[in-house]
Amino acid sequence: MIYHNPNVESAKQWIENATLGRREFLERLLAASGALASTAVVPSLQASDFNSRKKSLRIGHHFWNWDHAWNKGESLDERLRLTKETGYEGFEAKPEEIGRPAEEVRQKCAALGIRCAAIGGGLSDGIEYAQAAGAKIVRAYVPKEGTKRWVEYAGERGILLVVHPHLATPGGPDAVETREDLLRYLDARPGVFACPDTGHLALCGSDPVQTIRDLGERCRYIHLKDIRPERVGKKEGTREKFCELGTGALDLPGVIKALESIQYDGWIMVERDSREPDYVQSARNMRAVLRRFGY
Question: Which domain holds residue 19?
């Protein structure tokens, strides 16, 4: 002990040895703690983050799924009520399909506890309507030369602009049908984001799962749509193309995993785009499919 050794140099040496031993001990303790964190704490935090994102996802039901005879103002209350009763948190539609002033839509949605998630249609009218209705997304074609102006105009109003791949008119300008079309369109329009439509992508020969992964953070909205097996990659023809979610050829588990892999936390808008004998039951069926995935 230092108290029994009058030699100062020996005392210094003892202190250095004691300090070194303590340092080694602390280093080993920290290393062990780090190993423990990597096997227990970090996965726990990752799971917590994943669950948080999962809870932030909102599931909507496109108004196009209902009877098209309801695309008028007189049927708005019925469509809003059924959206809520069948388990959805919101909807998308075009202003002319809603048929009522945007401020009224916002008030009715607030009373029911649902949201107008997105507005489709033109840019100017769509952005103004979306802002008044409380929607944060406008799905519209954005002319390349006007990209900066429209992105800023929408951004000032808290609106994101997204593009939706769709079966195009042959020879039409700026057709966005495939994964390649979608990526090329976005590259030419900084500030515009993607709304991949799983059904239309598959119809035009693109893999929806790979498209979502390739889009990454540029995927800000999605139309979740199933496709009949015989129509995958076959956009020509007059036979029915799409079907109720969970009954067709869409790799739904793959789509869900792809969304999770890019840490998607936006709206999932369920769209059927086919006629059904019972629209209300179909809405319930499709909602039940997503619940089986924990959503």
Answer: 9-47
